[in-house]
TrEMBL record, chains A, B:
PROSITE patterns: HTH_GNTR (PS50949). The lineage of its organism: Bacteria, Pseudomonadati, Thermodesulfobacteriota, Desulfuromonadia, Geobacterales. This is GntR family transcriptional regulator. Keywords: DNA-binding, Pyridoxal phosphate, Transcription, Transcription regulation. It comes from the Bacteria. In the C-terminal section; belongs to the class-I pyridoxal-phosphate-dependent aminotransferase family. SUPFAM superfamilies: PLP-dependent transferases, Winged helix' DNA-binding domain. The keyword Electron transport does not apply. Pfam families: Aminotran_1_2, GntR.
């Protein structure tokens, strides 16, 4: 193939012509989101243009948000979302606090994961085929052997030092300079969140949450006899700060909880300036922020977003996270950077279960230090980026007209807003009978909202999943 | 050596003569508690008497409680306690409920374990030299490899099935026929206890506990905004049922907690008929019993005692335990048999931290199935039996007159009641300065009792520990 000669495209620079050819091949689906596009050298040979021209073309495509450069790796098509299916609008929960009772449903969705016969679109679990199982297990074995007696002994709070050092180093890439001494390891992120809530709140207190909200937040709030106040949230930018400000002015709010980066279930990514504003807004009122960053590393862009904790100068943000979405959910290794609540979190962790299991902490610490964590994460987020688009497209094709779907820039969950006549609780039951598990909308609300919404786990993509989406679409259509 | 000829001992049967010779060698310290005595065959040769005579002699010594037969192993001197130091009397806490605030001290005692320069007589941790570290770690490695993806996946409540099957089989030896489906694995025994309390109680409820009481019970009660009612307890038989009955008649008690077998800190072993009575007493009033059996397998007698749960016909006993005292505290693998609270416990476990870490559960399950758990436990309880006597004797030698010490028949903690002028909080501080950590009495009470008592961890015994006991004795004497 030879590029059109310079004469015929005299008015456009050659690199723009190259760029539009590539853009076209992306639009046509030759290269799909997450795919690697040809290297600069290959394209230069193919198009018979200079290396500089190709580089300029790629820079242009980067600027337009079509591709991403990945150091030492090349250029990749950025995850985009089909234009056919619009995004949901901002949520509109009622602005008065409510007791929580999501009941048995959330438990059922988690329980569905134990049934291998079900297509697992319900719980937000990572695709096991994308977890570094063998390397982790090797490290579990070698580290336990190497530490001998220490491997069977308590790692009492704040927990395994080597792991805390690795986490502290890694938090720098998210904009947080936190000393390893200011971290506490936990049995997963959920435990970190529950401990944080408990450190801050007393029974009866009100907690501001996003809406829709991760159902474990609601269950934790319920567990501690607290009340949830659902704040409207935008599918792109997360919790509405205007709505939060209004709520703060009208309600005695004791704490605020957010998943700022690649929210579960909305997929929203709160812009950095909003994160800063959120922290300032709360600190000015002496209200702690519990931030869950469990999806932060799964950014489809080359660099992961900052944490809200990065804007915390007064120790009022309790940053919670874990390796359950990237390495091993079953290891139950998470952590909290509790700011000024350090002592109380250590105390509560000790009372709750004394310590986090030692061998998994040693294995994860070693994986972070010498296991190629960055490489691993780059690999899996490429897959999730592609699958998220594939699933969103499939929803667009098969769900009834009027359906909306989110366009997350990270993580692996999609939020689908069906036409108002669709009953997601009924859909959940019908889907189960068809061998598919989904997360129905009402479990993401303390007030029974989102009856016409579902959350889909996009961590899996194959023919079986594609057929499942098609089945779901038909079931939903039958209700429209 | 030849036994005295039959003629000179004409009036006593020959086997009695043999028995008294052995008894004497035990009294003189030739054979010490936990030691193996010569086999029947050896002694028959040595004393030139028939095998039958030796067998009869050993049966007599068994009946007198001096030795124990261990199948496939031989005869061992039973753990006894020095007569020089009397046992403490029954405790006498006040019979009105109180808010709990054991404060920072309990945390400090646990924290002391991280300092290898301190002689570890404080926290009730097992001797790491007696843990099967290498075998466990080998099983951790092989089981994780064997289970592949399952080893990094959630074991959501009720938890790892293979482990539950093994635990259910083992509970039979403690008199409990519980189906594996009626067990929930937890991150250690403390978590099992906290989940149990939460499943039963609401803030403000009163819980009846032993006195002195394991301080984690008090902290759990505090955590959940409950109130503790301390019931007088006997150093041999545990919680006084008369006192409990009185308390039940005069207080609205919502739950009762006991460590019936080898209590921490008292070392008491509640007789089976008392266990039965305890369960009946509570069931008649519809009050659940939370039983902690973490020391149950560490019985110095050949057969472990039954659990109170063995007398539970109505699902009102929540049996909590773990492998932290026998296999690996750092693995954080425990369980609860929650009776009629099964569903609620599963739900609470899920909200607290979703699941217990998978690889340690797999390793422990394999150890129970094929690792020689019984043999291992027989070995370590022999050591603990001997050390407990050695430490009690050392206390008797070095502590001021008027000191009392318990005589547990299992476990590895000793409770020392010093003369009233001894201040254990001061002793704790002075001991720390001397490089020794102990558990001061007041952390075992919600009402600041036991100021003149300390708990000693007898899991270690060597010259350093012996010297530490001597130092403690001198420090206590200086306060008398």
């Amino acid at each position: 193939m030879r590029m059109s000669s310079p004469s015929t495209v005299a008015k456009t620079p050659l690199y723009e012509t190259v760029a539009s050819r590539i853009a076209q091949s992306i639009t046509e689906g030759t290269f799909r989101p997450g795919d690697k596009i040809p290297s600069v050298r290959t394209l230069s040979r193919q198009f018979q243009v200079s290396l500089t021209t190709v580089l300029e073309a790629y820079t242009l495509l980067e600027d337009r948000g079509l591709i991403d450069a990945r150091p030492q790796s090349g250029y990749y098509v950025r995850a985009r979302f089909p234009v056919v299916t619009p995004e949901p609008g901002i949520s509109a929960p009622q602005l008065s606090p409510t007791g929580v009772s999501t009941g048995e449903l959330a438990m059922l969705v988690l329980r569905d994961t134990r049934n291998p016969d079900l297509v697992p679109l319900g719980a937000a679990i990572p695709n096991p085929a994308l977890l570094p199982v063998e390397r982790l297990n090797r490290m579990l074995a070698t580290e336990s052997r190497r530490h001998g007696i220490a491997s069977v002994s308590y790692e009492i709070p704040p927990g395994c030092e080597k792991l805390r050092v690795q986490i502290a180093q890694r938090m720098l890439t998210a904009g947080c300079a936190v000393s390893p001494d200011r971290l506490v390891t936990t049995s997963g992120c959920v435990e970190a969140v529950v401990l944080s809530l408990r450190a801050i709140c007393r029974p009866g207190d009100t907690v501001a949450v996003e809406s829709p909200v991760y159902y474990n937040f609601l269950q934790a709030i319920d567990l501690l006899d607290l009340r949830a106040l659902e704040i409207p949230s935008h599918p792109r930018h997360g919790m509405s700060l205007d709505a939060l400000r209004y709520a703060l002015d009208h309600n005695p709010i004791r704490a605020c909880m957010v998943i700022a980066n690649f929210n579960n279930p909305l997929g929203s990514l709160m812009p950095d300036e909003y994160k800063k504003e959120l922290v300032e807004l709360l600190v000015a009122r002496d209200i702690p922020l519990i931030e869950d960053d469990i999806y932060g590393d799964l950014s489809f862009a080359p660099n992961r977003p900052r944490m809200a904790k990065a804007y915390d100068r007064s120790g009022m943000v309790l940053l919670c996270s874990s390796f359950s979405k990237t390495l091993a959910p079953g290891y139950r290794v998470g952590w909290v950077a509790p700011g000024r609540f350090q002592t109380e979190i250590e105390r509560l962790k000790g009372i709750t279960n004394i310590a986090t299991s030692t061998p998994p902490q040693l294995a994860v610490a070693e994986f972070l230090a010498n296991g190629g964590y960055d490489h691993h994460v780059r690999r899996i987020r490429r897959v999730y980026a592609r699958q998220m688009v594939q699933m969103a497209e499939a929803v667009g094709r098969t769900f009834p007209a009027g359906t909306r779907v989110t366009r997350p820039e990270g993580g692996f969950v999609l939020w689908v807003e069906c036409p108002p006549t669709v009953d997601s609780l009924l859909l959940y039951e019908q889907a189960l009978r068809a061998g598919i598990t989904i997360a129905p909308g009402p479990i993401f609300s303390a007030t029974g909202k989102y009856r016409n919404c579902i959350r889909l786990n996009a961590a899996y993509w194959d023919e079986r999943v594609e057929n499942a989406i098609s089945t779901l679409g038909q079931l939903a259509a039958a209700m429209s």
